[in-house]
Amino acid sequence: MDALRALVPTQSLLWVTYDRHNPPTRISKKPATNVSAAALDNFLTNTYSINPTFVTFQSGLDNGVYRLTDLAPDNFDKSVLLKELRIRHLSQEEVGYLTQGWPKDMTETVIVTNLPNNRLSEITLFRSRRLGGFSQQEIETLGSLEPCMSAVISQHFEKSDLKPTRTQSSNLQRTSVIDAGILTQREKEVADLVLKGHSSLSVAHILQISVLTVKSHRKNMYRKLNISSQTELFALFSGLAVGNRDSESDDDNRVPRSN
Questions:
Q1: Interval 36-57: pLDDT, tens
Q2: Residue 186 near residue 204, CB atoms below 8 Å
Q3: Domain spanning 2-160: which CATH class is it, in words?
Q4: DSSP strand E in the chain: where?
Q5: What's the topology of domain 166-253?
Q6: Could you tell me the pTM of the whole model?
């Protein structure tokens, strides 16, 4: 990444990987300059779901170098949950909105690489519009190097995919419980997204339903599975034994245990 910064100077850089059903994974370790920790956390848990790269990736996105404006819709959908996502509609921003804590007037150029197992690598370069953004010559320079960068990135993740993960080992148990006929189809969708790390807000946005509806599904789901909290939901699918430890954020979804 330091070599990339030297080639095309940036004010900040963020590297994440996406898959179509999980929140993104942050790869870059250095903090993104001028981006607050809260804003970055909000992106990684919520606003990634309306990010133009992620949205375009759902229907297919070729390897390449893109200005974010190339991927952003012509008109930002103002019906999204602005308050809950902690974003403001600002037409002068490249994507039509600004995440709380994110620097204003930034231009973004992304380098995307398709990875094994239907994932996508995205390296985002940031530069202020006041500094002129990224020139066409810089975009072309990055474009000429993109095939080599994508090859190296793909090779890196192919090697890492050979290592078994805890998530892979729990897939069979997760599938058997979700598909056991206990839950409705919508409850299955909510359970699967929660188990993959999505918040109620993120689930609501993905399924295009209200947060209150998500919480209602979660309460019904807990009752049917004879559990009382998100902690126990994770334990059910991981095979762990837990006591009464519950996260504060799960209080609204907690239900009395059946006798």
A1: 788 888 888 888 888 889 989 9
A2: no
A3: alpha beta
A4: 12-19, 25-26, 64-67, 87-89, 97-99, 106-115, 119-128
A5: Arc Repressor Mutant, subunit A (1.10.10)
A6: 0.62
